[in-house]
Amino acid sequence: MSSNSEGSSSQTVNGWKTTQDPLFHHGCHFGQAVHAFCNVPMLLTNGIIFLSFFSERKEFVAFWELLQVVPGLEEEVVKIGKLIQKGMNWAHADDTKGMKGAITNWITPKGQSLSLHIPCNVKLGRGFNYEHTGALLCPAGLDWTNIQTRTKLMNGEIQVPGDQWSVFLYAGYTYDLEDPWNGLLHSSLLVSAYKHVFTSPSSVDQEPKATCSGNVDIHGMHCVTKASIMYVAIRQIFPLYTATE
Known about the structure:
By secondary structure, the protein is mainly α. The protein has nine helices and two strands, in the order ββααααααααα.
């Protein structure tokens, strides 16, 4: 959750103020840096069952007795899971919304302007039907400058599979046919998006100036995780497409 989202309105889940509860914020970070696609209530339930197999029998019996002594304890676990899940879902939506406007600045060469203006707050003028975003979304290994390839991507004749990388994920937006891993996930666009999410939007072009702490400080994040890189890469795809694609 980027620091520009601190002023969001509070919501309620089963009587709990979500945006004011630490579990909600932990859920935001969990969905960004650990596991983006997860059913948290089910994860908690299965986790408890899993742990029971590795604990002593008498401890599991004691846990079962605890469930009988504390009415609604199981429901409370589900409630906690729902609150964490809501934090995850909110962070996903908030990050996508924040990148929608910011990405137009990131893809514009410094000191220059795009040949066609991209509105910041609406998802129009993007996708394969726009020169600049189409070039970034073009699947690695295909030549965007080839008119036939570009036309087929525009009209949907070429369907991009989910496991095919777009060229915007590569350093310098360049794909090496002989070494497909070279430069992957090292693009400047990905770095900008990562800073936007995990430090602050103001840190993309300069030292952070946000008055609120970013995710790195709040959650004690000391290193970049594989999951956080993939999370940002996935979030970054949506602002490059139009609303209908």
